[in-house]
Design goal:
globular, eight-stranded antiparallel beta barrel
Length: about 550
């Protein structure tokens, strides 16, 4: 998918932090290295073959009251909610109330489909073409998100927006689609979404600490936070009627383990229904999407996994089921700005559970001047290269279109990035001159080879900043969902345009023109394309422009 390019650029920003990675090999070590004891943190559970290998927590559930987190604390799930919504649809299908092949107008006759036949399956798989309301400029950061809405009122927010594409033509993450699934569940069952989930999923599976979000008192509920320059602040208020069937549920790591065991253990749905939920949907042109019904279906380092993340005001979540290893790990965090993402910690724990812990590396100091031997341009392809530079006895690498990252030596000619599985080595010729760079992305076994083509790194002059009316920034403001659980939020702060990707610091966008903006930390640009309906789209550009619009 073309939008992956922008995701990769922004995801890389998280590994620029220079704090220590996990040196230990226990589950607690991984958790303690990722989260501070005196700040917001996370709870996690590791289950293998039905046995709980680890359940623990790190950090604070409530900073104001000084309450430490425990595995029993209740967190907002964000988009992990979607798998529950998908399961509810499958339950209704098994009961003969609907089929996933039904046009949505069979159950929502007044919904405008612009002449297309949109099926329930299109909603489940994010292939409907219906624009995601959470990407409406300014919506997620304005007062609208604070209002309590009925399901009908929430649908009215987006039902008159133009379609992004025809059903089945593309994959584009759409919270609107899952709100419509919630509306269909309510229409077909005669119950509210909250009541249906409670009576048909939570109660049968014994998920006593799981809830639909609202104003009710929930015992052991963790508070959500966001990072600010000098610490933390409470996450902005969000009415939980707004995420609805796309992201409104709350749970504990223990309850999520019960959910996974019930889903894949035949307690809730037939094997056929579960298989359909976890089969990659295919587009009209035969291309796979990497997504089933409310669940991602993919491989991580060659291992098939079923997973999903979530991001919602004050919380970041991630859960993965590894069928081949019969291992389930769920991590719930109450600070989405934490420099270590949930998926990084979970991957460490998954490797340990499999009996093959990921290698840990300890930084060493090289002799003075030794780093200068590596400086240069390393060419990957005709369009891509990686620059290696040294500043104040620190080595940095920067790939074309990506962020500059500090690397740390753990042996001569061998380097790693903190909070990352990627590492690389340099090779030398017979005379001892460094000739190429071998990059092991994400800890992959096969290296990406880059030949050294220059000893000198050409630095571009500072890009000129255009004069732009700050009022224009209001048009670009909004939340752009780049992939499940990973958003880019654009806000105006006075006369500056700011951007923040999930789990990362806020950085300024500098205008190169009225529509095109650059980040000084990244060799890439973002272009906002105003639509006829007033919506803004994103276009990521580098040497070869890759469209990620609309998101």
């Amino acid at each position: 998918m073309k939008k992956t390019c922008l995701c990769c650029v922004l995801l890389l920003l998280v590994v620029t932090a220079t704090s220590a990675s996990a040196d230990g090999d226990t589950y607690s070590d991984y958790l303690n290295a990722a989260y501070p004891a005196d700040g917001p943190g996370a709870a996690v559970i590791v289950v293998k073959d039905g046995e709980v290998l680890f359940a623990g927590a790190r950090g604070m559930a409530d900073l104001e009251l000084g309450v430490p987190l425990t595995p029993d604390h209740v967190f907002r799930l964000g988009s992990i909610t979607k798998q529950f919504t998908a399961a509810a649809i499958m339950l209704l299908e098994e009961r003969g109330k609907l089929t996933v092949g039904d046009p949505i107008t069979k159950h929502l006759p007044d919904y405008p489909t612009n002449g297309y036949e949109i099926t329930i399956e299109h909603l489940l798989t994010h292939t409907s073409g219906i624009f995601s309301y959470t990407s409406i400029p300014g919506y997620m950061v304005g007062n609208e998100i604070r209002a309590d809405l009925t399901t009908e009122e929430l649908v009215d927010v987006f039902d008159d927006l133009e379609m992004d594409f025809g059903p089945g033509e593309r994959w584009s993450y759409s919270n609107s689609g899952y709100v419509l699934l919630g509306a269909i569940i309510e229409k077909v069952s005669g119950q509210s979404y909250a009541d249906f989930i409670e009576e048909n999923i939570f109660e049968p599976l014994g998920m006593t600490n799981s809830h639909y979000g609202g104003s009710q008192l929930i015992p052991s509920r963790a508070s959500g936070y966001q990072a600010i320059e000098d610490g933390y602040t409470n996450a902005p208020f969000l009415s939980m009627t707004q995420p609805h069937a796309a992201g409104s549920l709350l749970s504990t790591v223990g309850d999520l383990a019960r959910w996974n065991a019930g889903l894949f253990g035949g307690e809730l749905l037939t094997d056929e229904s579960v298989a359909r939920m976890t089969t990659e949907f295919t587009l009209n042109d035969g291309e796979g999407t990497g997504y089933g019904y409310g669940l991602s279906v993919r491989e991580i380092d060659g291992t098939p996994v079923i997973d999903h993340g979530g991001g919602i005001h004050g919380f970041a979540t991630y859960a993965v089921w590894i069928p081949g290893a019969k291992t389930y790990i769920a991590l719930l965090c109450n600070n989405p700005d934490n420099l270590t993402g949930p998926d990084y910690v979970v991957r460490q724990m998954a490797a340990k559970a499999a009996g093959n812990p990921l290698p840990t590396r300890t930084a060493i100091d090289l002799d003075a001047g030794a780093l200068d031997e590596y400086v240069g341009v390393y060419t990957i392809s005709e369009t891509e290269s990686r620059n290696v530079t040294v500043e104040e006895d620190r080595l940095y690498t920067q790939r074309t279109g990506s962020v500059r990252m500090q690397a740390f030596a753990h042996a001569k000619d061998a380097f790693f990035y903190q909070r990352s599985f990627s590492h690389f080595t340099f090779e030398r010729d017979a005379e001892g001159r460094v000739t190429r760079m071998l990059m092991y992305q994400g800890g992959a076994e096969e290296a990406e080879v880059a030949e050294r083509t220059s000893d000198v790194v050409q630095t571009a002059d500072d890009r000129p900043v255009a004069t732009v009316s700050p009022e224009l920034y209001d048009l670009w403001a909004g939340t752009y969902e780049l992939q499940p659980g990973f958003n880019l939020t654009i806000t105006r702060e006075g006369d500056r345009l700011m951007s923040q990707a999930t789990g990362q610091q806020t950085i300024e966008l500098h205008p190169a023109s009225t529509t095109r903006y650059f980040i000084t930390e990244v060799e890439a640009e973002i272009e906002f394309v105003p639509g006829d309906d007033g919506r803004a789209c994103l276009l990521y550009t580098s040497d070869a422009a890759d469209e990620v619009s609309p998101v």
